[in-house]
Amino acid sequence: MRLYTKSGDKGQTSVIGGRVDKDDIRVEAYGTIDEVNSFVGKAISELDKELFKDIVADLEKIQHELFDCGSELSNISKKREHKLTEEPITYLEEKMDELIDEAPELERFILPGGSDASASIHIARTVARRGERAIVSLMKAEEEISPIPLKYVNRLSDYLFAAARVINARLNVPDVEYERSAKVFRGSNKKKD
User: At residue 189, does pLDDT exceed 60?
Assistant: First the structure.
């Protein structure tokens, strides 16, 4: 199989159900989701597989869900298969609750970084936010887009923030607080009984 087809040499690309210009908002949306997936893969490669067994399992699951999300966003056919459901959104919420309980209390804004894996997760998080904006633009341009990819990516960016903090905590690398931040998070980030 050849990797090159030459079919995109005139500025168009294939999507499910046809072809669109390479600068189409749809391509921007699913391309950004692919970019998130790449940074998630980079973070997995930087994590100790024993210490972070739970997070690695989550991230590998997320990679498949991101592929489903991209597939759904790249579909222009009238027959739309919805591979992404509410279940992964609920799962991310449950996992976030667990991670928040493990992370140190948060009072101020923090700077992205710390360990290499945490920094990669923060990059994935910010790219997910860009993907979220592209999905909103796509939804404005085309009314038939399912709301699930947007909800999923929104929840994913929150999960990635929580995971980045736990990665640093397990490695005993403190989060770096933004030095001009007031105390913006009132009370504890720990769940109350």
Answer: no
